[in-house]
Write a structure and sequence with these properties.
The complex is a heterodimer of chains A (about 260) and B (about 475).
Chain A: E1 13-16, H1 20-25, H2 27-39, E2 43-45, H3 55-60, H4 63-77, E3 82-85, H5 88-105, H6 108-117, E4 121-123, H7 124-131, E5 144-147, H8 151-156, H9 162-168, E6 174-176, H10 191-194, H11 196-212, E7 217-220, H12 223-235, E8 241-244, H13 245-249
Parallel strand pairs in A: 1-2, 1-3, 3-4, 5-6, 5-7, 7-8
Helix pairs in contact in A: 5-6, 11-12
Chain B: H1 14-22, H2 25-47, H3 52-68, H4 70-83, E1 87-91, H5 94-107, E2 112-115, H6 119-123, H7 126-132, E3 136-139, H8 142-149, H9 166-176, H10 186-203, E4 206-209, E5 213-215, E6 220-225, H11 229-235, E7 239-245, E8 249-250, H12 256-267, E9 275-279, E10 290-296, H13 300-305, H14 320-324, H15 326-331, H16 342-352, H17 370-374, H18 381-396, H19 400-412, H20 415-428, E11 438-439, H21 447-450, E12 455-456, H22 463-472
Parallel strand pairs in B: 1-10, 2-3, 2-4, 4-7, 5-8, 7-10
Antiparallel strand pairs in B: 5-6, 6-9, 11-12
Helix pairs in contact in B: 3-12, 9-10, 16-18
Classes of the chains: A alpha/beta (about 260), B alpha/beta (about 475).
């Protein structure tokens, strides 16, 4: 088992919130999160009743539909030691909106529970760098990779160069910087279908930047952006794959 | 005659207008070039300010405090402006503001007016109202002049002709000013404009301006600008008429210290505007001897009443959000169907229409947050966009989308239903999946996805299925 010099702390009980779309469309990301956390000596739990954080509803204007999902999330994860989420936009949803949603619902217990729970909720890379204080998680990934900073991670969560520091510590990786790192890829949830033309134009810019890096893989902390970028790369018959950051960090030399 | 105004009441939906705009490759090139340039300048001058975040917070606090006490500060402004010799008028809406201004111009005895660049006059489509009344308005800001002569419409709050390059501008000047040999160097164009405008400055006796700030403490009207044409319009005419939204008021003269740092750095990437004028009433020794200020509501009090959207009124019209917006960068301003384009336009326009029009604008954003990051008064534009989306949803009631969202909501409220939906999805997509395991076409609104992207087929096993199996196998 790999352990970083700085990670001598006790083993944590980590509750995984996989998110609805990772559960359904990107199970490999969830498996990778489990692999990394267990490799670092932590225990992973998966509350079975979890479904969705409510982001799609909330951001599209269906706030009323998101309210019960907040209550569901709290019921599932209340009492957790730490909650890890491999999606920065879902964490941003919770941090930015759950407190005021709880106030609007108006139940005193819920308001208190949200306040107590939110400081324990971490985006995956954030959990590793900020909660565990690690950069090197003992990963091996001998490929040319470029990192896309998804907007919610960059701006709402303030991940900064955390994900890049994690990638730099990966053995064998050839990390190449993406031009226009702070530019949105154009996904934006329902924006991608409601404003398909604009979203497509933004995507075209992002894909050109990715191709310019000549990377074999584009990574990010959000599979939503990656699904969107992957969709265009595949449409254009480009041999560049997209892979969630957790899957790179889960890479091991023996498995290569 | 100026071009047809941008009217949210008749404008096409944003996605449709955006598609048309993006078909114009020259426009896209111009917009990208200009916004990149301004953004780089802004980043440079903001980066050299160690207290930039404190300034932003100060700006936010002052604006917030003002909005919470707007009635008080407006009356203070009125009293002080009147004391200094100005005449204050109150306009409930655009129509009333137009009526007041037209009658004031007529009373001044002039059939022409020289104008300082003003978004408020664009908002109320003042020029066409003046023309209908037989009054000829001359725009004196270089970019507004280009727009007026080109019978075009502004596409940016600060740089209204940003969508034009200098070759296009030369063509407009060559035809409209009758200068067949005009060059296309910046100084050629500036010279031509100077010659054209100077004659107007000296001849026309009535000026119309907007306002960057109304100072309650002194009754002064502050105008900031880069070209000096504004100073000409403020000093040369006999009659000066300023029109401003009621949101433009600031409490104290001292508050300019904050805003005159925030505004130029955010707007044009300048450390300071070359011309900062504060015009307070009438002075017998010099300047216009008749000074009117028209304070206009035009739905601003409705915005004020909405606690979550109130911060919209904090805007100081710097357009940094427009320059930073990846959507605006693709489409330019006209696609928004409003004189206020970009992220601030997407929240301001529908609210100025009291949510009766422009309902597609709150959706004209990927919620990337670049606007919030650069806003000098920290308006959380994504938050307001989401709030307005909620208003639109409530307004529209039952729709196919609302039904789908309700169904999804029901699914997510139960683990059993969620698992059933996951399985159903795997079955339902089967007819759409190609041999290579990808989907290249989706029906209905989802077709927007497959317009530029493929979609990988769903994996056979969900994460939770894997997790359960793993548990059963004892890891």
């Amino acid at each position: 088992m790999f352990r970083n010099a700085g990670s001598a702390e006790v083993s944590l009980r980590v509750s995984l919130f996989i998110t609805c779309y990772n559960d359904t469309l990107f199970p490999e990301t969830g498996k990778a999160v489990v692999r990394v956390l267990e490799r670092l000596g932590h225990t992973v739990e998966f509350p079975a009743g979890q479904t969705c954080c409510g982001q799609m509803h909330y951001n599209t204007g269906y706030q009323a539909e998101a309210m019960p999902l907040l209550e569901r999330f709290v019921a599932q994860f209340e009492g957790a030691e730490a909650v890890v989420v491999p999606s920065s936009s879902c964490v941003a949803m919770m941090r930015d909106h759950y407190p005021k949603m709880a106030l609007e619902i108006g139940k005193a217990e819920l308001i208190g529970a949200v306040d107590a729970l939110l400081p324990k909720v971490f985006e995956f890379s954030e959990f590793v760098t900020k909660r565990l204080g690690l950069e090197d998680v003992g990963a091996h990934y001998p490929h040319r990779v470029t990192y896309h900073a998804s907007c919610h991670g960059l701006r709402n969560l303030g991940l900064g160069d955390g994900p890049v520091r994690l990638l730099k510590a990966v053995r064998g990786i050839d990390l190449v910087e993406l031009k226009g790192l702070e530019q949105c890829c154009g996904f934006g949830g329902t924006f991608a279908v409601k404003n398909a033309d604009v979203s497509g134009a933004m995507l075209a810019d992002k894909v050109s930047a990715v191709l310019e890096t000549k990377a074999e893989a584009c990574t990010a902390c959000d599979n939503s952006c990656l699904m969107h970028i992957e969709g265009a790369l595949h449409r254009q018959k480009m041999d560049v794959k997209t892979v969630h950051l957790a899957e790179i960090l889960a890479g091991e030399e023996a498995a290569q | 005659m100026s071009g047809v105004g941008l009217d949210p009441k008749t404008a096409p939906l944003f996605p449709i207008a955006a598609k048309t705009a993006m078909g114009n490759t020259q426009l896209r090139k111009n917009v990208r070039h200009a916004t990149d340039l301004i953004q780089a300048k802004r980043a440079r001058v903001v980066g050299e300010m160690p207290d930039w975040q404190d300034l932003r917070e100060a700006g936010k606090q002052i604006r917030q405090h003002t909005m919470e006490n707007l009635d008080f500060y407006l009356e203070e402004f009125e009293a002080n402006c009147t004391r200094a010799g100005g005449v204050v008028h109150w306009a409930r809406d655009a129509a009333e503001a137009r009526r007041i201004i037209v009658s004031l111009v007529k009373a001044s005895g002039s059939e022409e007016v020289i104008k300082i660049k003003s978004m408020t006059t664009e908002e109320i489509q003042l020029n066409s109202a003046l023309e209908e009344a037989g009054i000829h308005p001359f725009e004196t800001d270089l970019a507004e002049l280009i727009i007026q002569l080109g019978e075009d419409r502004p596409s940016h709050i600060v740089v209204p002709a940003l969508h034009k390059n200098r070759h296009e501008i030369r063509e407009i000047f060559r035809t409209k000013m009758n200068l067949p040999d005009l060059g296309d160097q910046p100084h050629d164009l500036a010279d031509a404009a100077r010659m054209f405008l100077r004659e107007k400055f000296l001849r026309v006796k009535t000026g119309v301006s907007g306002a960057n700030f109304l100072i309650a403490e002194t009754g002064g009207v502050c105008i900031t600008e880069s070209e000096g044409n504004g100073r000409m319009c403020l000093t040369l005419p006999e009659t000066l008429i300023a029109v401003a939204g009621i949101d433009k008021v600031i409490p104290r003269y001292q508050d300019l210290e904050v805003f005159l740092q925030l505004l130029p750095r955010s707007a044009t990437g300048e450390r300071m505007n070359p011309y900062n004028s504060v015009w307070t009433g009438v002075n017998a020794a010099d300047g216009p001897q008749i000074f009117h200020v028209v304070l206009m509501d035009n739905a601003r009090t409705e915005i004020l009443a909405d606690e979550e959207a109130r911060q919209t009124l904090n805007c100081i019209r710097c357009a940094a959000c427009q320059n930073a917006c990846p959507v605006y960068q693709q489409t330019g301003g006209h696609a928004y169907g409003s004189v206020y384009a970009g992220p601030i336009g997407a929240i301001l326009t529908p609210q100025l229409q009291e949510m009766h029009y422009a309902q597609s604008l709150p959706y004209a954003s990927s919620l990337c947050g670049a606007c919030y990051e650069v806003c000098p008064v920290k308006i959380n534009i994504p938050e307001v966009l989401i709030h307005l989306r909620n208003k639109v949803v409530k307004q529209k009631g039952l729709s196919a989308e609302a039904l789908a969202m309700r169904t999804m909501g029901m699914i997510f409220r139960s683990e059993r239903r969620f698992r059933a939906a996951q399985r159903l999805g795997q079955v339902a997509e089967t007819p759409l999946v190609r041999k290579d395991g990808w989907i290249g076409w989706l029906p209905g609104q989802l077709g927007g996805w497959t317009q530029a992207r493929d979609l990988k087929k769903m994996p056979k096993e969900t994460f939770r299925d894997w997790w359960e199996k793993r548990g059963k196998n004892g890891n």
